[in-house]
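As promised in the previous annual report, we have extended the structural survey to additional targets. Below is the entry for AtzE family amidohydrolase.
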Amino acid sequence: MTGTAQTVPTSVIALAQAVRSGALRASDVIEPCLADLAARAGPLVAVTRVLETRAREEAARVDALVAAGQDPGPLAGVPYGVKDLFDVAGLPTTAGSGLYAEAPPATRDAEAIVRLKAAGAVLVATLNMDEFAYGFATINARYGTTCNPHDLTRLAGGSSGGSAAVVAAGLLPFSLGSDTNGSIRVPASLTGLYGIKPTHGALPLGGVFPFAESFDDIGPFTTSLADMARVWDVLADTPVRPVDAPVRLARLGGRFRVNLDPDQTAAIDAIAPEAPLLEIPEIARARSAAFLITASEGGRLHRPALARAAMEYDPQVRDRLLAGALLPEALYAEAQAFRAAYTARVLELIAHYDVLLAPATPCTAPEIADPRIAIDGAMSAARADLGIHTQAITFLGLPSLAVPLRRPGRLPLGLQLIGKPGGEAALFAFAKALEEQGTIGVTQPRAEARWTVTGGEV
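The corresponding structure token record, generated without further manual editing, is:
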């Protein structure tokens, strides 16, 4: 964020500390943030609504608490945005679709927003996404395609692309996204951020427009691990526990060693050269079952709206939802039964390990003009296949922390640190060690890459 008379810290922790101590007013944080969004956000196509009135009111509330000698909370005055499927009181929850642009407004905030507000954070924007979160690219028929701050000609990933882009661009210190099959980890990898998909159900889903409830989770994007832990503590309503014992590592093999960038293979092997190469069986079948369950649950959810207003959907989303709505119930039940048995087998396989290392995406950000990626030697739609390494992990309900490899001067690329159910503490502990040794960390976009567009500088 760009400061005015005072320098505004860019990290969540430093900014909150400045506001809590009285060194900086929340209002003095919000005004330059709003100005920055107005001046710089346009080329990213990442913001759907700027909530100026609400942001100023929340900042004034934080300032009043500080003036009264009260602690406004661990996120005091920190501006943030949310993917456009979180309920925001007084606004329609669009889920990225024109179909709900004029829907009745939400009567209360989503539970995650309630917790963040209680901790002093200030909501300033809603953020672009794939319609109904169905895609890995944030190609939105109504709002446009979100661009990557590292190169505006490339995708930011999805479906939480707007949430990733504003943080990677330095417009907001953190944001919230959702992840059904990789929709936090994919954009985190492509824009060079930390992003977490928690153990299924570990973070509050109340007031979040569903895609496929068997898989849906929410999580934050941040530019440092410490900031991630601070936001996690608020959302989870409990601090991350320290990990005292050594973290036991394994590298994922099989399909996780195919369709990835050579730099990812090299990084994984350099991080843990002695760690066993663990092959999770039937990954392709697990991913197919995940596609089936996602399509079926999404199709059932949207069946009434499809019957009423099918032509108001993005055609690509509509066709996939219609296909899902037509899937036989017996096939869905078979996929869920396979999921239960498969999860039990995999949990037994990984029982002796705390962190599994894997790629987050198969490549760097594809070009918007040709949104395809190479999968198994053939070109495939990025919108469907950027989640090739994340989808099976969601299928298992495991927590996964996307971490950015340190790659100055090159397009971002991330890894997944995958844990056992409830094992987020081990992921944070191991990521901290990697960050301290310089293996991972956020690289700021080059100014010319971020803001040069046709016709000159924004």
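The two ends are 16 Å apart (CA to CA). The chain has 15 helices and 19 strands. These points will be discussed at the next consortium meeting with the crystallography subgroup.
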